[in-house]
Amino acid sequence: MRIVLDTNVVLSALLWRGTPYQLLESIRQRADIQLYSSPVLLQELADVLTRPAATGRLALVGRSAQQALADYVDAVNMVEPAVVPRVVPNDPDGDHVVALALAAGADLIVSGDAELLALARVDTVSIITPALAIAHISAAKEV
């Protein structure tokens, strides 16, 4: 299974211990699941992780923005989409997430973004919440 996590899900996973964190841990425990990101999404994540609110939260768990980002980079396969078509109304960042998923041949985009979730599917890629992704992963047998 191939998965793309939207930046909002990754940020939540790195800063808190809720459903996005559980999802990321589930993915890391499964050799048959590949996680994909791109330079654009990693730059967006790096920018958000260095904001005061994020660095404060990371300090509470004893991590720096650089450590959190490096751990995530180690978990992902990098893909650079050749084209970023307009798919998500009023959301160029969402367009990039979709383009990445299509370029990576992903099965799932996991997001908390209402505009992305409203699409539900683009081509063969399902767009679901972190909670649904956990259920999907739990239901899928490890290869």
Overview of this structure, please?
Strand 5 and strand 6 form a beta hairpin. The chain has one domain: Rossmann fold (3-Layer(aba) Sandwich), CATH 3.40.50. It is globular. Helix 1 packs across helix 2 and helix 2 runs parallel beside helix 8. With 143 residues, the protein is an alpha/beta fold. The chain has a 6-stranded mixed sheet with strand order 3-2-1-4-6-5. The chain has 8 helices and 6 strands; from the N terminus they run E-H-H-E-H-H-H-E-H-E-H-E-E-H.
Characteristics:
single chain; 143 residues; alpha/beta; Rossmann fold; 6-stranded mixed β-sheet; 55% helix; globular
CATH topology grouping: Rossmann fold
Percent helix range: 55-70%
CATH superfamily: 5'-nuclease
CATH architectural category: 3-Layer(aba) Sandwich
The beta-strand count equals 6
Shape: globular
Unreliable spans:
none
Q: Output the radius of gyration.
A: 14 Å
Q: What's the structural domain tally?
A: 1
How far is the N terminus from the C terminus?
A: 10 Å
Q: Major sheet: order of its strands?
A: 3-2-1-4-6-5
* Topology as a string of helices (H) and strands (E): EHHEHHHEHEHEEH
Put simply, the count of helices is: 8
Question: What's the level 1 CATH class?
Answer: Alpha Beta
Query: Mean pLDDT, nearest integer?
Result: 93
> Helix- and strand-based class?
alpha/beta
Percentage of β-strand residues:
5-15%
Please give the largest β-sheet. Answer: 6 strands, mixed
